[in-house]
């Protein structure tokens, strides 16, 4: 039997980072940037106002207070997106909106609330002829400097940066609608089994719906890949062959079921005739049986194949442990474990045959703020509802027979962000 780590290392040795391609910025969330981005201009481009107010000269506001306002004639108005059409003359003010460029010779902005703007306005939004300033100012009050966000010539992001909402916003502010990024992996998902129906088909006695394709597709999407559901192959050589045929142009082919002893021959025959296949026993529960190999494409290249167990929880747990790292590798991301916590178990985890147990739990904080984890119920590898209720997998290590209630277990969280930088 292989340990989880041995199986993962073997699997990852078959993958490489995918090619780079031009990617619309809007689609790049979670992808890896594959170019250095240099700012060709300052952001903001010009000094501008941080408030709606009046551009002034600080020296003109000396001694101003609510009781003794300084009255200044208003010579114009400048809105965001406009350029001032005249410089500020000493002893005057220019009305200015947030984000609008500061007129030449002005060195501070007085916000509306520190003027008598509201009293003067009296229902009209017209620019008043004069304004009463209520406060003294210092240079740069309520101003944003040119380049204070990003300076022209600066390398804003380097190749390898993982793109989150913040980076995507900054890239948009640099004016780019597309960027070079490592391509997303396409994952073909082939379900096998004579008993399977597709959701949407009529329920029939003795049949079950193909849930694996959907849970796996959802994980592929979540980890940044593009799922391509290929449908159901029946437990015959011809059916599996034709399903695989259509899957070969993907970056990874995932099959589900047919890797336990009873089905092994069909899958093994077909897959070994189309490439290489090894059937492994991995020291884990659920998801002991696992197939891995490569399939030959017509052009002589090869595509890795991950053969997941059929039981729905086994398929999901195996994809978390082996599919997710493969996707990260292909996307050019570093291998980062799922976030985990140490939690006090409310229920025991039993390990009776020396395999690492991944127990479905709901982790929570108790009243004193301590992490605890409660079993979500029936741990059979066919019971998907207890997986749906779980937010984490509590681990009983390979070489420990039992974690008792009240003892601490490591819980790999399924639902916490797994990219922490
Ligand atoms: P097998 O690996 O073919 O022995 O399948 C193991 C178990 O998983 C059986 O109970 C199958 O009915 C079930 N199973 C196989 N494929 C799927 C699937 N795509 N969706 C849901 N259950 C499945
Ligand atoms: Mg089967």
How would you summarize this macromolecular structure in one to three sentences?
The protein is of the alpha/beta class. It contains eight helices and 27 strands.
Structural features, described:
The chain is α/β, with parallel strands linked by helices and 421 residues long. The protein folds into four domains: 4-18 and 184-330, Molybdenum Cofactor Biosythetic Enzyme, Chain A (3-Layer(aba) Sandwich); 21-41 and 158-182, Molybdopterin biosynthesis moea protein, domain 2 (Alpha-Beta Complex), CATH 3.90.105; 48-144, Molybdopterin biosynthesis moea protein, domain 3 (Molybdopterin biosynthesis moeA protein, domain 3, Beta Complex); 340-413, Beta Barrel (Beta-clip), CATH 2.40.340.10. Helix content is 19%, strand content 30%. It has helices at residues 4-12, 117-121, 165-173, 212-222, 237-247, 264-273, 312-330, 385-388; strands at 20-24, 37-38, 48-49, 53-56, 70-78, 93-96, 108-111, 130-133, 143-144, 155-157, 178-182, 186-192, 196-197, 208-209, 226-233, 252-256, 275-281, 284-285, 289-296, 302-308, 340-345, 349-350, 356-365, 371-375, 392-396, 402-403, 408-413. The strands form eight sheets. Strands 15-12-16-20-19-17 form a six-stranded mixed sheet, sandwiched between helices. The radius of gyration is 31 Å and the shape is elongated. The model has no long low-confidence stretch (mean pLDDT 95). The protein binds adenosine monophosphate and magnesium ion (MG). Magnesium ion binds at residues 193, 257-258, 263, 310.
């Amino acid at each position: 039997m292989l340990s989880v780590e041995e199986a993962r290392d073997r699997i990852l040795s078959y993958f490489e980072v995918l090619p780079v391609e031009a990617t619309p910025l809007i689609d790049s969330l979670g992808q890896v940037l594959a170019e250095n981005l240099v700012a060709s201009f300052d952001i903001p481009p010009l000094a501008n106002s941080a408030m709606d107010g009046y551009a002034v000269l600080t020296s003109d506001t000396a001694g101003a207070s609510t009781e003794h306002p300084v009255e200044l004639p208003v010579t114009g108005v400048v809105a965001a997106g406009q350029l001032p059409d005249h410089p500020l003359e000493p002893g005057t003010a220019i009305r200015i909106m947030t984000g609008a460029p500061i007129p030449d010779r002005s060195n501070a902005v007085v916000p509306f609330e520190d003027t008598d703007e509201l009293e003067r306005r009296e229902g009209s939004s017209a620019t008043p002829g004069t304004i009463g300033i209520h406060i003294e100012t210092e240079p740069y009050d309520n101003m944003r400097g040119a380049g204070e966000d990003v300076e022209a010539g600066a390398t804003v992001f380097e190749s390898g940066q993982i793109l989150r909402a913040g980076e995507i916003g900054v890239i948009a502010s640099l004016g780019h609608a597309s960027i070079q990024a490592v391509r997303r992996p396409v994952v073909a998902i082939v379900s096998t089994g004579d008993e399977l129906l597709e959701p949407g088909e009529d329920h029939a006695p003795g049949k079950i719906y193909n849930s694996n394709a959907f849970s796996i597709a959802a994980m592929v999407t979540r980890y940044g890949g593009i799922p391509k559901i290929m449908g159901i192959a029946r437990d015959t050589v011809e059916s599996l062959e034709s399903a695989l045929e259509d899957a070969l142009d993907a970056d990874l082919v995932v099959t589900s079921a047919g890797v336990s002893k009873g089905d092994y021959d069909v899958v093994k025959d077909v897959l070994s005739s189309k490439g290489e296949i090894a059937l492994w026993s991995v020291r884990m529960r659920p998801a002991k049986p696992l197939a891995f190999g490569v399939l030959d494409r017509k052009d002589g290249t090869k595509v890795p194949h991950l053969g997941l167990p059929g039981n729905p929880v086994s398929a999901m747990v195996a994809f978390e442990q082996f599919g997710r790292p493969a996707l990260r590798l292909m996307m050019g991301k570093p291998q980062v474990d799922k976030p985990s916590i140490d939690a006090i178990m409310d229920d025991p985890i039993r390990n009776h045959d020396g395999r690492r147990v991944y127990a479905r739990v709901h982790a929570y904080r108790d009243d004193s703020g301590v992490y605890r984890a409660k079993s979500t119920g029936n741990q059979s590898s066919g019971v998907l509802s207890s997986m749906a209720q779980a937010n984490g997998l509590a681990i009983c290590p390979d070489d420990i027979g039992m974690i008792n209630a009240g003892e601490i277990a490591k819980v790999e969280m399924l639902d916490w962000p797994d990219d922490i930088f």
